């Protein structure tokens, strides 16, 4: 059986986001044994879902695995899947849809890896139970999205002294409130996790516009900031695992 795979991402105009997706697709194709692995965007910029689906269905495949490449379940995921599935009635290619990239221990391990890298870069050698963590997510009106980040925070809480979360937009606690809550716990070292898939405008600009003044206001002892998730091998393995869940 010839299989193809299509990642549906939310969308970003930043060049780095497309570069990361190109790297991910290349590795998923090779490691997963697919005839091809492509990506498209729900919104913001080309290629849109319409472009991605048409390109995939021009290929000689028997099945297409559609991967909603989102960190949170919710309305965006539903919109992406609904748009892609419109093409099922006009093709004999079998469509398979995976779960989004949420509620999985791989994400916890990936965040821990990002935290460790930030600590190493900052020259911090304290044990994990002396480290405080603040996870910054995007924010969503969908309650399932909050459950997803709470899952990450709950698992991290088994390792670090204190773990909190806040959101860039849409819902509270916002970033200033998140930093204030961390300050009240008097951390020796605070690691701020950018829980975002890509180095898009949110990571490059939007978060720092709120984070920097909040840090200046509350004057914490030592603050380290992690990289975003990016084209990490753990993420590639998670995509393949999600795909295999529906393919088998």
Q: How is this structure best described in words?
A:
The chain is of the alpha/beta class. The protein folds into two domains: 116 residues, Rossmann fold (3-Layer(aba) Sandwich), CATH 3.40.50; 121 residues, Rossmann fold. It contains eight helices and eight strands; from the N terminus they run E-H-E-H-E-H-E-H-E-H-E-H-E-H-E-H. It has a four-stranded parallel sheet, with helices on both faces. Helix 1 crosses helix 8, helix 4 packs across helix 5 and helix 6 packs across helix 7. The mean pLDDT is 96.
Topology:
Blueprint: E1 3-9, H1 15-32, E2 36-41, H2 49-57, E3 63-69, H3 75-85, E4 94-97, H4 105-121, E5 131-137, H5 143-156, E6 162-167, H6 175-184, E7 189-194, H7 201-218, E8 223-225, H8 233-247
Parallel strand pairs: 1-2, 1-3, 3-4, 5-6, 5-7, 7-8
Largest sheet: 4 strands, parallel
What is the CATH architecture descriptor of the largest domain?
3-Layer(aba) Sandwich
Model regions low in confidence, pLDDT < 50 over at least 5 residues: none
Q: What fold name stands as the CATH topology of the largest domain?
A: Rossmann fold
Number of helices: 8
Number of domains: 2
Write out the strand line-up for the largest beta sheet, numbering strands in chain order: 2-1-3-4
Strand content: 15-25%
As a percent range, the share of helical residues equals 40-55%
Rounded radius of gyration (Å): 19 Å
* Secondary structural class: alpha/beta
Order of helices and strands: EHEHEHEHEHEHEHEH
Strand segment count: 8
**N-to-C span:** 12 Å
